[in-house]
């Protein structure tokens, strides 16, 4: 017998953006294990197919009879046309989404203000902010009409405290926090739940992207301490989604034990 009841997830339909790797992939697999149907959306279709196979395996091993329907959809959340036509790509039986996990996002570079390329700035805002907002707008009216739904936005410690060399990324995650907070207040008279998950250091391909493919530079970010991994954040997302309908985890701030802020960490413990 498990301590926490996850049976509320059985048969629910979950949409995870950025599901091809990292937190998104781990989240999709854990929802599958919990008996949910999962729509996996990301730019890399081949990688999505591998995650969908892992979802099928996790669901089969769970022994649950409900759920277990998985769909992969190629989606670039920076493309307005792809978002507008998104539901047309989803099998009809999965179009009534219950849980939206806005996970797609990235960081690029450590340049200081004055040296930031316009293209990098625009790309981060387009994906991290405008894409998240557009996906939310795509589903919020349906959630209101059906009087159900849960929107889980992946924020960051960078949305709580800015740091040098991260001005644009921090600005995007502050925007996510503000948008999520406003949405929470707008739907207070409905059964719709709104959650923001705010991770600290998580070791995924995230830092490799930040350092433009330089894995050795990315590895140094986590040197000397034990960072979180994608599965740690997936557990928090799925736990928040499985709470009773009257319980809303509005914010969940999660750090590795040796991190206290973006700039304060202890690196002698590993």
List keywords for this structure.
270 residues; 40% helix; seven-stranded parallel β-sheet; single chain; Rossmann fold; 7 strands; 13% strand; alpha/beta; 8 helices
User: In this structure, how is the largest beta sheet organized?
Assistant: 7 strands, parallel
Portion in strands:
5-15%
Q: What would you say the CATH architecture is?
A: 3-Layer(aba) Sandwich
Query: Structural class of the secondary elements?
Result: alpha/beta
Any idea of the CATH topology? Rossmann fold
CATH class: Alpha Beta
Topology as H/E string?
Answer: EHEHEHEHEHEHHHE
Mean pLDDT: 96
Number of strands: 7
Family: Belongs to the short-chain dehydrogenases/reductases (SDR) family.
Protein name: NAD-P-binding protein
GO molecular function, one term: oxidoreductase activity, acting on the CH-OH group of donors, NAD or NADP as acceptor
Organism: Trametes coccinea (strain BRFM310) (Pycnoporus coccineus)
Gist?
The chain has 270 residues and is α/β, with parallel strands linked by helices. The chain contains eight helices and seven strands, in the order βαβαβαβαβαβαααβ.
